[in-house]
Amino acid sequence: MTATASPAVPTIDRHRMLIGGEWVEATGGATFESENPFLGAAWAEVPRAAPEDVDRAVKAARKAFRDPSWGGLTPTARGHLLRRLADLITREADRLAEIETRDNGKLITEMRAQLRYIPQWFHYFGGLADKIEGRVIPIDKPGMVNFTREEPLGVVAAITPWNSPLMLATWKLAPALAAGNTVVWKPSEFSSVSALMFGRLFAEAGFPPGVVNIVTGFGSEIGESLVGHPQVAKVAFTGGDRTGQSVYELAARSIKPVTLELGGKSANIVFADAQLDNAVRGVVSGIFAATGQTCIAGSRALVHRSIHDQFVEKLVALGRTARMGDPLLDTTQVGPITTRPQYRKILDYIEIAKGEGATAVLGGGPATRPECGAGWFVEPTVFAGVNPAMRIAREEVFGPVLSVIPFDDEEEAIAIANDTQYGLAAGVWTQSMRTAFHLSHRLEAGTVWVNTYRATSYLSPFGGYKRSGIGRESGLTAIREYLQEKSIWIDTVGEVPNPFVQR
């Protein structure tokens, strides 16, 4: 399917939030506009929730959690609902992908691939729903039987970012629902429309009202109300590490668990024995795909000094071929920056890098090509002459900006790669099996790719070390993030001994 090119003047679509199975306005009717980043103009009007709306949504989720229509379902029945939802997403994938591209400016080719893959999470966790098992423990106390149950937590607050909204929401929704929880989903204010359209599928799939609720608005206005709500049992957040720290601190006040998937400053390490053309393509994929707006962006290319100049030459040559423009066209390879504030932030970092003495060997400023129109575009940028102490090599830019850093040996590469507050991902390019295994062990990152980059799956756990987060999403591990274990003791003897002594 080929999407229609972006219109010159967008029409304004108006949307409502989902609370308790009803599509509702925000309290007082407040709204805000969502902008199309390619057109640089508003294209949708979205409810601007207030704390009162959050309270309504959480209470609706809590009511649904206790209601037999959800809480009384067998795990097998829950799994059936998730698989039915997966089929509906498959049906609507291309339409949702186009909405997401209009909302956040990411390439239609990538969004289409993501939406067609998202159903696999719901199929996978739908299959896991009735595989959640407790244990019978061979206890050391005569006449006692001890066993455990895995039970849902309750209401989960899912807070998602603007860069891959539906994919990252799915990583939370699928395991949370499979475990029997209910959800209040707060999408980014910059990408709420696709979430609201996605939300329409839950009722069609047969989910009871209130199992999934969607509140839209600004984190500064409703984030504290959601995270701190006494009836929220768990918070799952994806976003920047500073906001994640605030979420963590706020959740700690009410002693509730969190899953945090935060930022990164990932190293893509190229050794002298690497297949050079593959490594160049891998580094380009790591930083210019998704316009660099991804937590796993390989924003530091660590290149062995013996091949540094040759590598940079090939990297720049490939980077120059990148086709920029309308993200709804299948031929576009680099789209716009999603938000105005992020656009300005990236340009500020480019100037900081120049001021620190780094050399822009590719790009280095805003893109003014005719095909970029009025959108917020930044030229794919490569900085050489970077040392690891520079801000451009230490701070997350979240844009198409790459720092190239030379290294002399394996130990230096490991030291540079690990010398960061982040630990989300890393890449290694080598033909040596020993190097591949050694680096995979030594790198302080939740995911290490060898001779590839940006591969993810519903089967494999994903998460970070250090300030890149807490907990894991996807894979068998993920469902345990949404369960709590209960220990049950039964006395089979029938005689209560001395009540003043602990048994």
From TrEMBL:
Listed InterPro entries: Ald_DH/histidinol_DH, Ald_DH_C, Ald_DH_CS_CYS, Ald_DH_CS_GLU, Ald_DH_N, Aldehyde_DH_dom
Family per record: Belongs to the aldehyde dehydrogenase family.
Full protein name: Aldehyde dehydrogenase (NAD+)
Domain Aldehyde dehydrogenase: 23-488
Taxonomic source organism: Labrys wisconsinensis
Active site per database record: E261
Pfam family, one: Aldedh
Tree of life domain: Bacteria
